Amino acid sequence: MPYHRAVYINSKWGKLMLHSDRHLYKYLRYTLIFGLLCIIAASLVKSFYLEPVGAITQKKTFEHLKAAPFTQTVPDNTFSETCTYHVPVGVYSSPVLAVEPFSNTVQVALDGREIFSYEDSEKEKGFNILWIPLPDDAAGKLLTVTCSSASRNSIEPLIMLGDQNALFINYLGDNFISALVGSASVLMGIILCAASFLLYLKNRGISQAALFYLGIFILLTGIWILTDSDILQFITGRTASTTLVSFLAFMFMPYFFLLFFQRILEKSPRPLRILGMLMLVNAAFVTVCYLFRILILYATLLGSHLLLVVVMGFILKISFTEFRRRQSQELKKILIGIGLLLAGVLAALAAFYIDVAGRWYPICYSVGILFFILCLTSAALDNTYRRMSEHASLKAYKKIAYTDVMTGMNNRSAFTRYEKDHILPAASACLVFDINNLKHTNDTFGHLAGDELIIEAAQCITETFHSAGKCFRTGGDEFVVILENIQPDGLRRKLQDMKALLDEKNKSRSPALNLAYGCNYADITGRSVREMFEKADREMYDMKKRMKQEEG
Q1: 113 is in which domain, residue-wise?
Q2: Which residues contact 374 (CB under 8 A, 6 or more apart)?
Q3: What is the bridge-based pairing of β-strands 80-86 and 142-148?
Q4: Which uninterrupted H or E stretch holds 312?
Q5: Distance CA 186, CA 514 (A)
Q6: What is the DSSP letter of 406?
Q7: Sheet harboring 158-163: ordered strands across?
Q8: How far is it, in rounded angstroms, from Cα 19 to Cα 57?
Q9: pLDDT digits (tens, 9 = 90+) for 94-140
Q10: What b/e sequence results for 307-325 when a residue is b if at least 16 CB atoms lie within 10 Å of its CB, and e otherwise?
Q11: Is residue 279 part of a domain?
Q12: Which among 312, 509, 518, 532 is placed 20 to 30 Å from 386, CA to CA?
């Protein structure tokens, strides 16, 4: 086989394989997304029907928070710990015990009488605050809190005692930054999604996918920040659903950021596509584990964190490479944003693994993500502006390419394109016009007078037929009009209007403007523009001959 033939076959086979690979990737991605949505729906239903912990109702009175100095004992060879405390007399008007357990079961007793119990052996009720109002006669009694776990590695519970209003204000203060950043992110995400949709409607043909994916990413970020805080428990009391939504938002955030990044690059490198599939697989795995109690949600966090680190590493590498090659301001802003986000992420991960119950984990993430979002939004707006500018330039070039400079009508190229792309429906007409005696006018009165004839002929044709169809100047003195959905009576009225307009112009001009025309009408569908043009053109030349004979 000749070398050039072999190269051609290999190249063709490579393109075919690449095309098939992309179709396979899309098929797998959509199948996985559909299955994942079904699993997520089932998991949300399950979480909704788990026993709610209860919402907080704020009291009108306010007293300062009183931290409880508990005495803690941990029996040997057990996975439980007991904390005891004598409730003081005359200190709390409406005492509430707030327990943030990291254990499977919690029992609360007053002088040996159990007043509250909580069990979550599968760790599926979510991270919550047990809000336990104490009886009115609790003052002076011994309060006992026993927390039991399935392993010795459980984290020590956080326990506070105080008036309900004081505790509420304390938790509200701890979560204020998260609530503020989360709410702002949700609002900003919705605005960007709506803006991308409106821009797409206004500028058809310009992809707004980058802005849309960024909007989804920011929306999920806000949802994650809000659900990762204690705010929603105070409102809904459904910690199981809140925790599940928090995990889902956290897993899908990097996926939509990846889609946004690919649109900024205007290409989809294979490693990024594979990482996107891995994120979907990871989300499906975590949700299946939750739905069928294979693993608790918190046991899957390490895998999600590692995948996130790998994704950010690839994005950084590709961003640096592309930035050196293109010096794109969009990529520069993304790199700055990633740098600020990484600082927040590293601080948050350190806070999480050092002190899971600490408040610094969501705060570090919130601050890092806030700056990240601002940088990404700026990059997305730059990308949108650039695309719109390119589209506007392209439209301007197209208009120049398909517009006749002298008359402003569609030119010959536009007509050639139109006849290739269109099959005329029933009740259509093709008219061909030609200026009589244009050569004589040029020879007698000069080419400027001939140009005036052409311009005025174009004005008459456009004024008469523009509202009903398309008008073209296909030659020096030749014009074509295509009318669709017009009845014979309507066509006759248009031609009469055209004659009246010419008569009016000829009252005040010399030489006179006379047009010969041919018309072909189709009362059935399926006629080609070329076929109708040829018949109308022949009729025009027949009329031109008759008009010359009458003059001569």
Answers
A1: 71-170
A2: 337
A3: antiparallel
A4: helix 301-326
A5: 67
A6: T
A7: 130-133, 95-100, 158-163
A8: 59
A9: 888 888 877 778 899 999 899 998 888 777 787 778 888 888 888 88
A10: bbeebbebbeebbeebbee
A11: yes
A12: 312
CATH number at residue 250: 1.20.1070
Average pLDDT over residues 196-223: 86
DSSP 150: S
402 domain residue, yes or no: no
CA-based nearest residue to 257, from 182, 326, 307, 303: 307
Environment class of residue 5 by beta-carbon count within 10 Å: exposed (0-12), middle (13-18) or buried (19+)?
A: exposed
Rg (C-alpha) for the chain, rounded Å, is 38
Q: What share of the chain is helix, strand, coil (3-state, %, to 5)?
A: 60, 15, 25
DSSP secondary structure string for all residues of 212-271: HHHHHHHHHHHHHHHHHSSHHHHHT--HHHHHHHHHHHHHHHHHHHHHHHHHHHTS--HH
Examine residue 56 and state whether it is found in any structural domain, yes or no. Answer: no
- What is the bridge-based pairing of β-strands 130-133 and 527-528? unpaired
Residue 179 shares a structural domain with residue 318: yes
The DSSP bridge pattern shows strands 515-522 and 428-435 to be antiparallel
Same domain? For 41 and 138 the reply is: no
Give the start-end residues of each E strand in 16-165.
71-73, 80-86, 95-100, 105-110, 113-119, 130-133, 142-148, 158-163
Among residues 170, 203, 235, the one where a domain terminates is: 170
The DSSP secondary-structure symbol of 121 reads: T
Q: What is the pLDDT of residues 294-340, one digit of tens each?
A: 888 888 888 998 998 898 888 888 888 888 888 888 888 888 888 88
Residues 268 and 368 in one domain: yes
Residues with Cβ within 8 Å of 425's Cβ and at least 6 positions away in sequence, in order, are: 484, 485, 525
> CA 437 from chain center: how many Å?
61
Return the amino acid letter for 226: L
Please check whether residues 428 and 351 belong to one and the same domain.
no
SS (H, E, C) 78-112: CCEEEEEEECCCCCCCCEEEEEECCCCEEEEEECC
Number of domains in the chain: 3
Q: 114 and 248: one domain?
A: no
What one-character-per-residue DSSP string does 416-453 give?
HHHHHH-EE-SSEEEEEEEETTHHHHHHHH-HHHHHHH
pLDDT of residue 427: 87
Using the 3D structure, point to which of 170, 191, 209 is the last residue of a domain. 170
Q: Locate tokens 């490579």: which residue?
A: 14
Q: With the CA atoms of 408, 409, 415 and 421 taken in that order, what torsion angle do they form, in degrees rounded to the nearest 10?
A: 90
